[in-house]
Design goal:
This protein has 266 residues and is α+β, with helices and mostly antiparallel strands. The protein has one domain: Endonuclease/exonuclease/phosphatase (Deoxyribonuclease I, Chain A, 4-Layer Sandwich). The protein is built from six helices and 15 strands. Strands 1-4-5-3-2-15-14 form a seven-stranded mixed sheet, with helices on one face. It has a six-stranded mixed sheet with strand order 6-7-8-9-13-10. A two-stranded antiparallel ribbon has the order 11-12. A hairpin with a 2-residue loop joins strand 6 and strand 7. The longest helix has 18 residues. The radius of gyration is 17 Å and the shape is globular.
Length: 266
């Protein structure tokens, strides 16, 4: 487990509202893309960043550039090789309770907020895809009764909401995540445009595969979700940056005996 949290400076005061970003870097970036990716992320003035497809070599350059602008704390899921894609969580505040069982699955707590970062494999590896979904759902069950945030590249669009994706598997797992009470913040904000996409494929495909889900206790405090596809047109990645604003803890809903009804499972 790679956890970096400098102790020389006191932790910053948490802002009233936190900006959370999610981005798949596309195979770890490149010599030219990585510095541009860091600058692009910093334009959002983020407080928390969840990254997918981070690789150790180029990732260190990106993390250093982020740290120089106050995002000094990060955790990276462990991997057996520097060339393996991993997920990471970067934050202005210190990270606590960091744990990982896969290069594609990582949990940490930022302040009072548990965060689960995930990168589900695509259909080319059915066993790994199913196993990662099972691991993610186990964590989702563990955190369902508290404010929690799940962010990732799920490689799974939502049937009946997003345009159909040919050959897609594991749709039922996305349904299970919703039936546990987690809300797709994009859909909860009444964004239902059928043309919304977060990934651009090599054959012209466009699908919404990336997103952020929050538990019932947090869903009313997630505001202004945006898929920014300019980074795709600029050639920085084949995935859009997804951003959302999260209200401070005093606005979160405490555990209730009768939670709000979940979204439709599919």
């Amino acid at each position: 487990m790679h956890l970096f949290s400098p102790s020389a400076k006191p932790p910053p005061v948490a802002p009233a509202t936190q900006t959370v970003l999610l981005w798949n870097l596309r195979h770890g970036g490149s010599n030219t893309r990585t510095p541009e990716q860091a600058l692009h992320l910093l334009e959002y003035q983020p407080d928390i960043i969840i990254l997918a497809e981070l690789r150790a070599s180029r990732g260190s350059q990106l993390l250093t550039m982020l740290a120089e602008q106050g995002l000094m704390h990060h955790a990276i899921a462990p991997a057996s090789s520097d060339r393996i894609n991993r997920v990471a969580i970067v934050s202005r505040e210190p990270l606590h309770s960091v744990a990982s069982t896969s290069p594609r699955l990582l949990t940490a707590r930022v302040g009072e907020l548990p965060i689960i970062a995930a990168h589900i494999p695509d259909e080319s590896n059915p066993r790994a895809r199913a196993d990662l979904w099972h691991g993610l759902l186990a964590l989702a069950r563990e955190h369902r009764d508290r404010p929690a945030l799940i962010a990732g590249d799920f490689n799974t669009s939502r049937r009946g909401i997003d345009p159909a994706r040919q050959g897609q598997t594991c749709e039922r797992h996305m349904g299970t995540l919703c039936s546990l009470g987690y809300r797709d913040v994009w859909i909860s904000a009444e964004n239902s445009s059928p043309g919304t996409w977060s990934w651009a494929g090599p054959m012209g495909e466009r699908h919404r595969l990336d997103g952020i889900f929050v538990s019932d206790q947090l869903h009313k405090c997630a505001e202004n979700p945006v898929y920014d596809t300019t980074c795709v047109t600029q050639g920085l990645s084949d995935h859009a940056v997804f951003s959302v604003k999260i209200a401070p803890p005093r606005m979160w809903i405490s555990h209730q005996n009768s939670p709000l009804p979940p979204e439709s499972s599919l």
